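Re: beginner question about structure tokens

> Can someone show what the tokenized structure looks like for a real chain? I only ever see the sequence side.

Sure, here's an example I had lying around. Input first:
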Amino acid sequence: MEKNIFDLMQSKKSQDELAVLVSCNKMTEKFGLSLTKEDAQELVVRRNDSLRKYQRVEFGNGILDKLICTFCDSQYINQDNYLRTLEQLQDIFYEFKNEAEDKLTDDELLTFMSEQFESVCFGDIEYLESTCLERFAAAVRAGYDGYKKTGGHNEYEKVDEESRWDKELYLEVVRELFWG
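And the corresponding structure tokens:
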């Protein structure tokens, strides 16, 4: 009897979750993005795989709707790569919740991920995972907590190891080359 009640509760939770994910289409359609019910089911299955892989437990609706809302306006996501990108982003989200030892809130991590995806990574999920998030999580594990004041905004330059393009320096060199 207990198993039947649990199965009923899980079934209801899954139905509710799928409805939430599909309802996100109201917001994402203006960006040319939408999920079918089958896409939403695949995301839930992949989410469950990620939770098992990273030994995490999630209560409530989970992170998928927040992930969709955070990334739907990305210039690097289109309908052709939407589902695959969401699957990858949710997987690395759970990975880096662990890597940062759960010191980051969901919103702080999503903000950091989104900013780097758009600006530093130019839509390259592998670079986001292997460089930006690795460095940020290492800094958090080492005791860095400046992200708490910013909510995760504008944090990468504090842990970045690469020199970035300097517009003023570039213009100065161009002036010297062309105008002596």
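Each token stands for a local structural state, so reading them left to right follows the chain. The chain is about 65% helix and 0% strand.
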